[in-house]
Amino acid sequence: MITPRRNTARVEIDRVSEASSRRRRDAVAVEEPLEIRIATVEGEEHQVAVTMRTPGDDFDLTAGFLFSEGLLSHRSDVADLRYCVDVETQEYNIMTVYLSEAARFDPAELTRNFYTTSSCGVCGKASLEAIEIRGCAPLPAGATVSADIVRSLPDALRRRQPVFERTGGLHAAGLFDPTGELQLLREDVGRHNALDKVIGERFLGGALPLGESVLAVSGRASFEIMQKALAAGVPIVVAVGAPSSLAVDVAKEFGMTLIGFAKPTGFNVYTGRHRID
187-218 b/e with 16+ CB inside 10 Å = b? Predict the structure, then answer.
């Protein structure tokens, strides 16, 4: 049996103030690499990606990443998920997804897929075309939400971040229903990882698409956040921070509602005003 890894660590620090300096222990969020692999029914194994993440919900993270990047389509594609135990020092940091016979997997998709979502700078037109090629279509109307609920989401998200309360160092992604009731929340050092953990939990539970949910994220709304939300069918994305220009482009192109700078006193609606009552 594999023991779950810790998501926080205690470190020695010097606490310096105007009047004094003292030695104390502090909690920090754990950051470790997770290598994601795909194993085919023919026994071939392919390295897909390495992401820096906070340990915990690794099965969800792996499934959510592969789904949102277009490498998994249905829950039935997955025969099994396992940590690697072949290398003792890496048993918690390598995750392999074993595909079922029903899965369609082309190793050539790996290079094309990760080029289009690279942070190294692909143009907006190429990125939007890549989403369309993958089969994403504009979202139907889906959920609507009141302005009062939107204003309440940042505080609702923050109150339910247990690791953030201890460390101050994690992002969060939360799914809410249109009444503001929290359905699911995940934390991670990476905002995209937190969202993949949410999407993966729903994917493995056969609960996609998420057309009646509202997604709230603790940081900014990037292209990657919007692309993953689109893949999961989320019609409304509420960000505590700012959106990027490409995030706005994705929201416009695919009929999503994008809200930024959300706080109790107000918010900005960048696209999809018709879903806000």
Answer: bbbbbbbbbbbbbbbbbbeeebbbebbbbbbb
User: pTM above 0.85?
Assistant: yes
Assign 197 to helix, strand or coil: helix
- What's the rounded Cα separation, in Å, for the pair 248 and 269? 10
Whether the per-residue pLDDT at 151 is higher than 80: the answer is yes
| Rounded mean pLDDT, 9-26 | 82
- DSSP H helices, the chain, are 58-68, 108-116, 124-133, 147-159, 162-167, 191-204, 223-231, 245-253
Listed residue (128, 139, 135, 207) closest to 175, CA to CA: 207
Q: Is there a catalytic annotation at residue 84? A: no
| Structure token pair of residue 10 | 């205690």
Gap between the Cα atoms of 192 and 170, Å rounded: 11
